[in-house]
Design brief:
The complex is a heterodimer of chains A (363) and B (319). Chain A is of the alpha/beta class. Chain A is built from twelve helices and 13 strands. In chain A, 44% of the residues lie in helices and 18% in strands. In chain A, helix 3 packs across helix 11. Chain A starts with a helix and ends in an 8-residue tail after the last helix. Chain B has helices at 10-28, 35-44, 46-60, 68-84, 89-112, 118-137, 147-154, 163-181, 183-193, 195-200, 205-231, 242-252, 264-283, 288-318. In chain B, 75% of the residues lie in helices and 0% in strands. Chain B is globular, with a radius of gyration of 20 Å. By secondary structure, chain B is an all-alpha fold. In chain B, helix 3 (46-60) packs antiparallel against helix 11. Chain B has a single domain (42-308), classed as ABC transporter involved in vitamin B12 uptake, BtuC, CATH 1.10.3470. The chains are: A alpha/beta (363), B mainly alpha (319). The A-B interface holds A 78-81, 84, 113, 115, 206, 233, 235-236, 241-242, 245-247, 249-251, 253-254, 270-271, 274, 293, 296 and B 29, 31, 34, 36-37, 40, 44, 47, 134, 139-141, 143-144, 227, 230-233, 235-238, 240, 278-279, 282-283, 285, 287-289.
Chain lengths: 363, 319
């Protein structure tokens, strides 16, 4: 009897894929031809590219386009405000196009946390199977989405790598120059401390491209432009607020004359700021990302500055780039999105004004 | 219980290890031995220490609690939201403690009533609790805690001694008395050694075990509320992976994952040792990648020490 049930079960399980295949409509074929980039290290900071203003001036207005476009976007994790804002930006970008009469929608999904590399790949594979028109991907690590991108390209689905996380074989990349994050912070700090004194860097997760580039940008700028500024400490705190605070409180005791601390993101900078508050010293704290909490902290006179890469506008540029690619325009490999340093002088200036944002033009 | 010389006790070995570390790191950079830095070591051990003390209770009964990091997060966001809504800090803390206890009791009931293996039961609640923390906040952090609350849990009390350190010591002390001098404490060890025999001798095993998981939840709640005070912000992502650090501290302190063995002092010292190592490596400017390796090696050495200890004792009795 038991055996009978087992056999029945096995037969049912085996027949599932057949039933599924029977039920599924044949996926529509993509009309695009997509080529993989060579599998070699790729640094978008150093590649050929347009800024988003150049994209508009060089390529002109967005073409008329009547196809139905279903964009699939995969972010890292919505626990992080940055990704929620990027999602909002993409949805707003699509909405604006819908209002112009385009048949476009965007479906933004994410992994289950920033450690869920395989889960994120599963989301991408699902989107490939459902034949989304184009994919906008922000991989957790440089490698975890590669198999999904290969599948997408096989199915001729255009893939755009949206900062951050680098997919070296993806045909297009949209994002800010990560190295410039660090350069902007370095220049601001050097100016404030009179090009002289001790500074330290709190690094994010070393596997992340953004962490490496931000740190390198800061160091290189200081070496070249401010030889009397020393970087006395440099450690990673895994993007974690509590770890960054612990790190900073030790450094502040070790270097009583520390002048400034640059953090690879705002969450860590806010942790470092807590340590600085406790020490009652006047140490500059600069972060990256421009999250709401950092803005509030700058308004309160606590954190000193943040380098904002405006995910809300980045999301819109990503959607616009996707539409341009789909409508047949030739984009360079990289489109750089805007960024700016925010401190007490411009914390209340609207972002659109700071970056000189304009709406795209249409034919 | 076997009696053996103080030299053979785990606590003594950890203290020796701490001294060695102190000397080595001081040679590398004398700042290490400054009073401010030593205080930092203790202060930075509070978060892990409180979790570890709680988890020691669960481990002594032969169980484990993987959900402490998630319990930690629920308490952080709940207490954070209450404070934002204007609930007096003292009341919010009490509710936080009760909440932590109840979340722990749920684990205990899964283990004692549904007869789930503790590893599986708490693996499940680890995910459920984390999800609840996200649902409560929608993923957003709870910002700007009132300074009265922050001072209450993370201010300085006498001189430079942080309140959080006193809370850690008080929690450890209560646990110490409970485990060492109360009948219920001895029963916890008995459950870990032989649950059936303990049950047959008339002890209410289920109730005691459930309570042990409750204590574990209280440790997580205290730990979370201190972090909330320390950072002034509560994030639903807080505490991920903290359960492993807590288990490490307990294991270094001589708590056997097989149950029936462990002490408050050992766990406390284990947490301080991990913190001393972490701070030392930071002061010395060692790359974080090496910090992982060093932490892992210490856990392995501590476990091996246990085996050598047992061997020597067996040899001694053979004579």
């Amino acid at each position: 009897m038991k055996k009978g049930i087992l056999v029945l079960f096995i037969v049912m399980v085996l027949s599932l894929p057949l039933m599924a295949q029977g039920a599924q409509e044949p996926a529509p074929e993509s009309k695009y031809t997509v080529k993989l980039m060579p599998d070699e290290p790729f640094n978008p900071d150093a590649a050929d590219g347009y800024t988003f203003e150049e994209m508009r001036s060089e390529l002109g207005p967005i073409d008329e386009f009547t196809d139905s476009v279903r964009l699939g976007a995969v972010a890292k994790a919505f626990e992080n405000e940055y990704w929620r804002t990027l999602k909002e930006g993409m949805e707003v970008g699509a909405k604006k196009l819908q209002d112009r009469g385009y048949d476009i929608s965007v479906d933004v999904r994410s992994a289950q946390g920033e450690g869920d590399e395989l889960g994120q790949l599963a989301v991408v594979k699902d989107m490939v199977n459902k034949r989304y028109t184009a994919l906008l991907l922000s991989p957790i690590s440089d490698g975890n989405l590669i198999p999904g991108v290969e599948d997408a390209v096989k199915a001729n689905i255009p893939v755009i790598n949206v900062n951050d996380g680098i997919i070296n074989i993806a045909p297009n990349f949209v994002g800010p120059r990560a190295i410039e994050n660090g350069e902007l912070a370095a220049a601001w700090i050097a100016d404030k401390i009179g090009y002289r004194g001790k500074t330290a860097i709190v690094i994010g997760m070393p596997k992340a491209f953004a962490a490496r580039q931000r740190t390198e940008g800061f160091e290189t700028w200081m070496n070249e432009n401010a030889p009397n500024v020393q970087i006395v400490e440099k450690q990673n705190a895994d993007w974690d607020r509590a770890k960054a605070k612990d790190l900073a409180s030790i450094w502040i005791k070790k270097h009583p004359d520390l002048k400034a601390i640059f953090c690879n993101n705002d969450t860590m900078a806010l942790g470092v700021q807590e340590a600085v508050n406790e020490s009652r010293k006047d140490i500059l704290v600069v972060g990256v990302d421009g999250i709401g909490e950092a803005y509030d902290s700058i308004r309160k006179g606590e954190m000193d500055a943040t380098v904002d890469s405006f995910p809300y506008y980045k999301g819109q540029v990503a959607v616009e780039s996707a539409l341009r690619i789909l409508s047949g325009q030739e984009l360079p490999r990289v489109v750089w999105t805007p960024q700016a340093l925010i401190d007490s002088t411009n914390v209340d200036v609207p972002a659109a004004e700071i970056i000189g944002w304009t709406e795209p033009e249409f034919k | 219980m076997k009696k053996y010389s103080i030299l053979m006790q785990r606590e003594f070995a950890i203290i020796v290890a701490l001294f060695v570390m102190l000397i080595v790191f001081t040679i590398v950079d004398p700042i290490y031995i400054s009073s401010g830095n030593l205080l930092d070591i203790i202060e930075q051990s509070t978060i892990n220490g409180l979790l570890a003390i709680g988890i020691t209770f669960a481990i002594i009964t032969g169980g484990i609690d993987l959900s402490v990091g998630s319990t930690f997060a629920i308490v952080i966001v709940t207490v954070g939201n209450m404070l934002k809504a204007g609930v007096p800090p003292f009341v919010a803390v009490l509710i936080g403690l009760v909440l932590g206890y109840l979340l722990g009791v749920v684990n205990g009931l899964l283990v004692t009533q549904m007869r789930l293996q503790p590893f599986i039961a708490t693996l499940g609640t680890m995910s459920v609790y984390r999800g609840i923390a996200y649902v409560i906040t929608g993923g957003w952090p709870v910002l700007s805690m009132p300074s009265t609350y922050r001072k209450m849990l993370d201010g300085d009390l006498i001189g430079d001694i942080p309140v959080s350190v006193l809370i850690l010591f008080a929690f450890a002390f209560v646990g110490y008395i409970y485990l060492k001098y109360l009948r219920a404490g001895m029963h916890l060890y008995a459950i870990g050694n032989n649950e059936e025999a303990t049950r047959l001798s008339g002890v209410n095993v289920d109730r005691l075990k459930t309570m042990a998981y409750g204590v574990c939840g209280v440790g997580a709640a205290l730990s979370g509320m201190i972090l909330l005070a320390r950072l002034g912000t509560g994030e639903p992502t807080a505490g991920q992976g903290y359960e492993l650090n807590a288990i490490a501290a307990a294991a270094i302190g001589g708590t056997s994952l097989a149950g029936g063995k462990g002490s408050m002092l050992g766990t406390l010292l284990g947490a301080v040792l991990l913190s001393a190592l972490k701070v030392g490596l930071i002061v010395a400017g060692v790359d974080t990648f090496w910090q992982f390796i060093a932490t892992g090696l210490i856990i392995i050495i501590a476990a091996y020490f246990e085996i050598i200890q047992d061997k020597i004792q067996v040899a001694g009795y053979g004579r």
